[in-house]
Amino acid sequence: MRHAHPVAVVRAAEAAVMARLPAGTLMQRAAAALAAVAGRLLRRRVGRVYGARVGILVGSGDNGGDALFAGARLARAGARVVAVPLGARVHAGGRDALTDAGGSFGSAADLADVDLVLDGIVGIGGRPGLRPEAVAALRRVPADATVVAVDVPSGVDPDTGEVCGTAVRADVTVTFGAFKPGLLIDPGAEHAGRIEYVDIGLGPFLPTPWLTVLDDEDLPARLPRLARTADKYQRGVLGVVAGSPRYTGAAVLTVGGALRTGIGMVRFVGAAEPADRVRARWPEAVVTVLPDDARDVAAAGRVQAWVVGPGLEPDDVGHALVAQVLAMPVPVVVDAGGLAVLAADRSLLDGRRAPTVLTPHAGELARLLRMPPGGRRDIEEHRLAFARRAADEFGATVLLKGTTTCVASPSGLVRVNPTGTPVLATAGSGDVLSGVIGALLAGGLSAFDAASVGAYLHGLAAQLVSGPAGRPISATDLWAALPDAIPGRPDSREW
Ligand SMILES: NC(=O)C1=CN([C@@H]2O[C@H](COP(=O)(O)OP(=O)(O)OC[C@H]3O[C@@H](n4cnc5c(N)ncnc54)[C@H](OP(=O)(O)O)[C@@H]3O)[C@@H](O)[C@H]2O)[C@@H](O)CC1
Ligand SMILES: [K+]
C-alpha cells in the first residue's frame, strides 16, 4: 500500500531526521536518486549520458538545490548541463557543485536543444501559481524533451493536487521521503506523470497516513473470506433496488456487477419491467416485483446489504424506495437516482447508524452539497477537499467518481484509486460499480474497504478487457472481466 503525507507532516519528519544526520545528507540522498532516474531516462532516449544535453530550471529553494546536485552528478558522467536560475537566489552548495563538475549557468534561450529537463523551480515550499519568469522559461522547453519534476511538478499544490495557472507537465516525478497527496489526485496526478518514490529515511518519523493507495498485493487480505463451510447466506446476500420502466438496463447491469464479484445471492426488488429483464438475463437472481406504490421492500427477504438507486427516477416512487432502504439497519450503497432523491431530501439519512456508501460523480455531489452553478467544476478542481467534506457532512463513505476516484470515510481517511481508466467513462459502468461495491459490503467488508476495493476491481476489470491499447469497452464487458480481476483469496488453498 502506498501512503501519502501532507507537506506539514513531511516537514516535521524531515526535521526529526535532519537533527540526527550531518547537514546536507538528505539532499545528497535525494540528488543521487534523481540523477540515477535522469540517467536511466537519458540512456533510454539518446542511448547514453555522455554528451546528452540537460537543462535545469532552478528556483531559489532546496528544490533547486536537489536539481543542481543531481545536475552535477550528470555533468560528471559527461552530460552537457546548463542551469537556468529563476529566483532571487540559487542554492550555494548546488551552484558550486555544478560548476565544479563542468556544468554552466545560462538563460532560458539555452534550453532550445535539451534532451531532458529537471524541474527544480519549487517543491513543497512553493506558493500557488508560478511566477511569470518561470512560466516564460517553461515555454522555451522543447515539446519533445523529457521532463523530470523534482519532488513535485512545480505549480501543483502538493497537498491537494490543485493547479493554479500554469504548472509543469512531467513525464516522471521523482518524489522524496513520502508521496504527497497532490501527486495522486487530478489535476496534479496528470501533471506528475509516472512517479518514482525515493526512500530517504523519513519512514520511522511519519505518522499513520490518512491517505493511501491500494496495490495488487493489498487485495487478497481485503476480500471477503471464502470459508470452506460457507453457505450462500454466510457468503452474503445483497438486495438491489434499481431500474425503472424508463431505465431497465441499470437494474440488469447492477445485478450483473454483484453476481460477477462473487456473492451468495442477489435479491432484486423493483417494478415489473426491470424485474422481467433481470429475470431473463440473470436466472440466478431472486426477483420480487413491487406493487405500483412501491410498498414493503423489506418483504423481499433478509439481506446483508442493499444497493439503491441505479436507474431509479427521483419521483415519489423513487423517494419511497430510497426511504425504505435507508431505514433498514444494514449497509447501503446509494447511487445515481438514489443520490438525486437524497439531494432533494437529506433528512433520509437522519438517525441512520448502519454504514452508507454514496457514489456520486462531481455533478451529483454538487447537487448533494447544494452548491451554486459552477459547483461541479469547483469539485473537479478540489476533489480531495470535497470528498472529505461530503463524507463528514453526510456521515457516510463517499466515493467521488472521476479521473482519479477518491473514497473518503467519515473519519477522515481517503483512498485514491489507482486503476481508473478513461474507457470506464461509458454509460452503465457506474451501475456495475454499485453492484460490485454492494457485493463486497454484503460479504462483510467495511464501507471504506468495500468502496475502495470495489473501485479497484472495477478499474482493473476495465483494463483487462480494454488491453494496453485502451480498446473501447461497454459496461456489459465488465461482467466477463470481473472474475479475472479478483485475485486469489488467502484461504482459497483450503479447497
Ligand atoms: N522534505 C525533505 O525531507 C527533503 C526535501 N528536499 C527538497 O527540498 C524541497 C523544499 O525546499 P524549500 O523548503 O527550500 O522550498 P522550495 O520548494 O524549494 O521552494 C521555496 C522557494 O521557492 C520560491 N517560490 C515560492 N513559491 C514560488 C512560486 N510560486 N514560483 C516561483 N518561486 C517560488 C521562494 O523563494 P523566493 O524567491 O520567494 O525567495 C521559496 O524560498 C523539497 O521539495 C525537496 O525538493 C530534499 O533536499 C531532501 C529532503
Ligand atoms: K519541482
TrEMBL record:
UniProt binding sites for AMP: K401, G402, T403, T404, T405, G430
Gene3D superfamilies for this protein: 3.40.1190.20, YjeF N-terminal domain
Enzyme Commission designation: 4.2.1.136, 5.1.99.6
Binding-site positions, K(+): N63, D119, S154
PANTHER family membership: ATP-DEPENDENT (S)-NAD(P)H-HYDRATE DEHYDRATASE (PTHR12592:SF0), ATP-DEPENDENT (S)-NAD(P)H-HYDRATE DEHYDRATASE FAMILY MEMBER (PTHR12592)
NCBIfam families listed in its UniProt record: yjeF_cterm
Family that this chain belongs to: In the C-terminal section; belongs to the NnrD/CARKD family. Belongs to the NnrE/AIBP family.
Assembly and oligomerization: Homotetramer.
Protein name: Bifunctional NAD(P)H-hydrate repair enzyme
